[in-house]
Amino acid sequence: MKPFCRILGVVSCALVLSGCGDGGSGGAGGAAGGAAAGYTLAVIPKGTTHEFWRSIEAGARKAEAELNAAGTKVNVIWKGPLREDDRDQQIQVVENFTTRRVSSIVLAPLDSQALVKPVESAIAAGIPTVVIDSDLKSDKYVSFVATDNFRGGQMGAEHLAKLMGEKGNVILLRYAVGSASTEAREAGFMDAIKKFPNIKILSSDQYAGATRETAYAASQNLLNRYARDLNGVFCPSESTAVGMAKALRDLGYAGGKVKMVGFDTGAQSVADLRAGDIQGLVVQNPLRMGYEGVMTAVRSLKGETVPKRVDTGVTLISKDNMDLPDVKELLEPPLAKYLK
């Protein structure tokens, strides 16, 4: 081979190797290569049955559509466990997406401790992770996009105390061990309700579980024990609120006989609020949460600096303000606009 041909061959080989290197970086979530080839984002909710998660998905789809319209290729894959107490399945979903080498993961961990290892394994594999809705006991994720759940719990306590005239007996029906979002709400409630010296906590150590059915059973047990002396109840999730409201109706304590404040929205809880069986709902903005989760992940993939914490807001809704335009959209988000 002539000297010139040898030089040309070496240069060509170097260029090919350089190109292969860029492509590999993009597939693992690298900024330059990923931007050219597009990003694949795995959005993993705690569960897929509650209406709350449909709003999260709608927000993720809204972000996906806007990014693609603006010229950034993004493909959102929505996959999660059926039930919000299936830790093993959610862990498996995270591990599968890590093996598939998606560009980024947007995760609502259903257990703050159990999901640490699979998330940190994904990050170690070059897949940045944004945590949404419920915190994780790790500091290695890109950003935490969520409600200020502690403040939401405080708001629930303050509203319930007002409804009760700042005196009487209350119970807190907890959700599930390991759910960081609801644990923060419960802690916020306990922190604020103790500031009212004439309010006594009758029970605060009972758990409802992940479904309306288990919440209904737990509510019946509590009411059978405490209802005669009870003035107020706080429930830190949509399923606990719906289960408790049904138990109050069935046992004859609904309609304000026992004041009740819940958390989150759904068709049934909104109907219960309008009917007067629930006197207050502390409401998140899940559509915004899903939207900001995807947007934050893509900004990070592009090499932009993103905040470690994004607060997506929390609102106290009662029968008095539930028909205001901004509030109504929180209660009935435009899901059909984004979910095809």
Structure description:
- The chain has two domains: 38-146 and 286-311, 3-Layer(aba) Sandwich (Rossmann fold), CATH 3.40.50; 149-283, Response regulator (Rossmann fold), CATH 3.40.50.
- It is elongated and about 65 Å long.
- The protein has helices at residues 3-27, 31-37, 51-69, 87-100, 116-124, 149-163, 180-193, 212-226, 238-250, 267-275, 286-301, 325-331, and strands spanning 39-44, 74-78, 104-107, 129-132, 143-146, 168-174, 199-207, 232-234, 259-263, 280-283, 309-311, 315-317.
- Helix 1 (3-27) crosses helix 2, helix 4 packs parallel to helix 5 (116-124) and helix 8 (212-226) crosses helix 9.
- The termini are far apart.
- The strands form two sheets. Strands 2-1-3-4-5-11 form a six-stranded parallel sheet, sandwiched between helices. Strands 7-6-8-9-10-12 form a six-stranded mixed sheet, with helices on both faces.
- 48% of the residues lie in helices and 17% in strands.
- The chain has twelve helices and twelve strands.
- By secondary structure, it is of the alpha/beta class.
